[in-house]
Amino acid sequence: MILRRAFRYAWRLFELGLIVFLITLFAVFMAERYALAIYAPERIGRVDALIVLGGGVEPDYVLNYVGRERADTAAALMRAGRAEVAIFTGTFERFDRPEGEAGLMRNRVSATGIETTRLFLEPDARTTLENLRFSFALAEAQGHRTFAIVTDGFHLPRALALSSLLGGDNVTGVASAGLDDHGAFTRLAFLGREALAWWYNLGKAAAWSLLGLAGMSEAERGQWIV
Hints:
It contains seven helices and five strands. The chain is α/β, with parallel strands linked by helices.
């Protein structure tokens, strides 16, 4: 009887979790559609700096197609005169490479003929929150004040939300090409991961805000929340 009741409760929790996940997945899909329409590259005005978020690296240490799309979008914007500099952010701890994923994106953009003096690395960030924290600090130290976050449409809404959490002013977004050209399984995998990431990041955001209210500095909070 006890085991049966425990199983019943566990099954109900599973059903509730599945419903919440499916609702979140649909919300992520709709947010992606919105981001691709509102934050299309051709709609961006001029900014001081692009912040290009890493999208992933293949086992043979080359950018995956998500990373390539983000780098290519940044290159097109710079060629069009939409930004003074670009900051490429992201490590990849699986490989012992000091330049990380950021270096691969910079190399891809540099190969298009854009001066390397306009391309900067932030090779230490492991998460989206760190991508933004470290890149904002680097850009502001250089005197830049307006920014555009370059990432995929499915990822951009969360990146902009985290930017607001950090108090980022004068920040807009650029949605690189979506996943429409890829298979259904690939789309579902990326969107599903993003749906889970939203809940995980909501927890981080709550902890970040509470610790801030308690008087902890951003640097101190960054040691606990990545």
